[in-house]
């Protein structure tokens, strides 16, 4: 659906986007994740035709930028970080104004579209309210309805949850997931939990470069790292259990931790990400009469991946 090749953008001598390559499949939700100033907004503005690239190419469906600008813009709905709303208008009047600008002249078609957008974005209770009276979360919903007015195949959202409270973030996330069942969505964010909860795939951008591009689970597994195993036992002393675990491998570090219940002992076991270690621990304990109450490998948090990949790029 979208293919970006060697995309580069300079502002005088500053390289904001540095030779990036990216593909987005039809029906996919892609999160463009990166710290502030990483090049996310510049990338999206080139993708939507608002900025001209310094080099590289953008293909949307069968069309190329900038040669087929009009055709590409007809395929894309775009919501910038600051939603372009007229605060002195009622929500209904504003949407009608947008619909007319976008060429929906038939009154019945506009009405049907408003009903659909009202359902998707949860606008039915605020249609008669001035936009100035709305919370930021509700204004973002109106902005999404604006971007979706012509029922585009692709939705581009720049930091759609920036500045929202947790409840508003969850509401916008639900809207994105609902739209993503039928549309291709690309949205930028620096909120890690947002990307993890919403996206099919994440591209991490740092200093204008794509430093990772994969599913969340694959990104977590991609780094060579220490695994952490939480183990709780009944029927053993701390000394006995520590001795048994130490004899399994010299490459693991064992730390006694506070158990959740009085009759248990607990450990945190760290070592290289090795599936064999877990099996060996289980089989050794199975030879005893101890009871395993907890035996969990902690997955790497996306925050760790993000911190590692957005360090200084040489």
Radius of gyration, in angstroms, nearest whole number:
25 Å
Kindly report the name of the CATH homologous superfamily of the largest domain. P-loop containing nucleotide triphosphate hydrolases
Mean pLDDT across residues: 89
Largest sheet: 6 strands, mixed
Helix vs. strand class: alpha/beta
Neighbour order of strands in the largest sheet: 6-7-8-3-9-10
Helix content: 25-40%
Distance from N terminus to C terminus (CA atoms, Å) equals: 32 Å
Count of helical regions? 11
Number of strands: 14
The overall number of domains is 2
Q: Supply the CATH architecture of the largest domain.
A: 3-Layer(aba) Sandwich
Per the CATH scheme, the topology name of the largest domain is Rossmann fold
Order of helices and strands: EEEHEEHEHHHEHEHEEHEHEEHEH
Proportion of beta-strand residues: 25-35%
CATH C-level class of the largest domain is Alpha Beta
- What coarse outline follows from CA principal-axis ratios? elongated
- Uncertain segments of ≥5 residues (pLDDT<50)? none
Your description of this structure?
Helix content is 35%, strand content 29%. It is an alpha/beta fold and 314 residues long. It has 2 domains: 2-221, P-loop containing nucleotide triphosphate hydrolases (Rossmann fold), CATH 3.40.50; 224-299, Alpha-Beta Plaits, CATH 3.30.70. It has a 6-stranded mixed sheet, sandwiched between helices. Strands 2-1-4-5 form a 4-stranded antiparallel sheet, with helices on one face. Helix 4 crosses helix 5 (136-147) and helix 5 (136-147) runs parallel beside helix 6 (166-180). The radius of gyration is 25 Å and the shape is elongated.
């Amino acid at each position: 659906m979208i293919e970006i090749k060697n995309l580069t953008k300079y502002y005088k001598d500053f390289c904001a986007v540095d030779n990036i390559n990216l593909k987005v499949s039809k029906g996919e939700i892609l999160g463009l994740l990166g710290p502030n100033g990483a090049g996310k907004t510049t990338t999206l503005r080139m993708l939507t035709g608002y900025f001209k690239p310094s080099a590289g190419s953008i293909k949307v469906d069968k069309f190329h930028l900038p040669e087929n600008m009009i055709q590409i813009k007809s395929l894309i709905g775009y919501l910038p970080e600051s939603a372009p709303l007229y605060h002195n208008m009622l929500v209904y009047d504003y949407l009608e104004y947008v619909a007319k600008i976008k060429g929906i002249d038939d009154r019945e078609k506009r009405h049907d579209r408003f009903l659909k957008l009202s359902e998707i974005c949860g606008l039915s209770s605020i249609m008669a309210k001035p936009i100035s009276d709305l919370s930021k979360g509700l204004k973002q919903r109106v902005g999404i309805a604006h971007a979706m007015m012509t029922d585009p195949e692709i939705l581009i959202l720049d930091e759609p949850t920036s500045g929202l409270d947790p409840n508003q973030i969850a509401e916008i996330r639900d809207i994105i997931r609902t739209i993503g069942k039928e549309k291709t969505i690309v949205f930028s964010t620096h909120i890690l939990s947002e990307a993890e909860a919403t996206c099919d795939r994440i591209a991490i951008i740092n200093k204008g470069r794509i430093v990772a591009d994969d599913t969340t689970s694959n990104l977590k597994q991609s780094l060579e790292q220490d695994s952490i195993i939480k183990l709780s036992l009944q029927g053993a002393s701390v000394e006995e259990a520590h001795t048994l675990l130490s004899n399994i491998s010299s490459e693991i570090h064992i730390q006694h931790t506070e158990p959740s219940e009085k009759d248990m002992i607990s450990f945190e076991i760290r070592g290289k990400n090795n599936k064999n270690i877990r099996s060996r621990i289980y089989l050794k304990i199975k030879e005893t009469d101890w009871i395993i109450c907890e035996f969990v490998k902690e997955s790497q948090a996306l925050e760790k991946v993000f911190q590692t990949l957005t360090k200084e790029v040489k």
